[in-house]
Amino acid sequence: MFNQAIQLSQIDNGPVTDWSRTDNLNGEDEEDSKIKNFDEMSRFWNKYFSPYIKTQRIENGSDIGHAKIYLPDGSTILAWNGGCMTFSYDTNGDKKPNVSGKDIYPFHFCHKIAEQNRYLGINKAFGPLGMIDATDRQAAYDACKNNAICSSLLILYDNFEFKKDYPIKF
C-alpha cells in the first residue's frame, strides 16, 4: 500500500527528496506546536498520499499532535511528524488489542537523503521502524521472536500477510 502510493505520488509530485515538508514543529507554546504538527501531517498526507490511499477522514489522534487517518476498511494510520515521519498502521483501527506486532505495525517515511541512509538504507524512503539488520525473511523472523517492533519488517517480507509461522501470537 505505502510503497505503491509513494511510487504513484512520485509520478505526480517528483522524487520524495523534493517533497515539501516541515519537520517536527516545536515552539514555545506546547499546544500551538501540537496543532502545527497535526496541520502539517494532514497537509502532507492530503497532498502526497491521499490521492493514492483512499482516506475516510483525518482527526487529531492524540494529545501530542498525531494525525489519525481512517481508511475505508476500518484500519487506521497514526502519523507523527518528526525528522522522518512515523506511520503506525493499525490493522483493526480503534479495536483492541492495540499492541505492536499484533495489530500495530510502525514504519518510517524519510524524504531527506541523510535520514533515508541513517534509518532505512540507501535510496529507501519507506521501511520498518527500528534498525533491524535482517537481509532476508528468516533473519527477520528470528529477530521478531524477541522484539515485536521488528514485526513491521517481517510483515513487509510477507507482503502484509500473516503466515502460519508468524512469531507473535494473537
What would you say this structure looks like, in words?
There is one protein chain. The chain is an alpha+beta fold and 170 residues long. Helices cover 31% and strands 17% of the residues. A hairpin with a 6-residue loop joins strand 1 (57-60) and strand 2. The chain is globular. The mean pLDDT is 83.
Mean pLDDT: 83
Main sheet summary = 6 strands, antiparallel
Distance between the termini: 23 Å
Radius of gyration: 16 Å
Return the structural class.
Answer: alpha+beta
Low-confidence stretches: none
- Topology pattern, helix = H, strand = E: HHEEEEEHEHH
Helicity, as a percent range? 25-40%
Beta strands, count: 6
Number of helices: 5
Strand percentage, roughly?
15-25%
User: Going across the major beta sheet, what is the strand order?
Assistant: 1-2-3-4-5-6
Overall geometry comes to globular
What attributes does this structure have?
170 residues; alpha+beta; 6-stranded antiparallel beta sheet
Please describe the topology of this protein.
Elements: H1 2-13, H2 30-48, E1 57-60, E2 67-70, E3 76-81, E4 85-90, E5 104-109, H3 113-119, E6 126-128, H4 137-144, H5 151-157
Antiparallel strand pairs: 1-2, 2-3, 3-4, 4-5, 5-6
Helix pairs in contact: 4-5
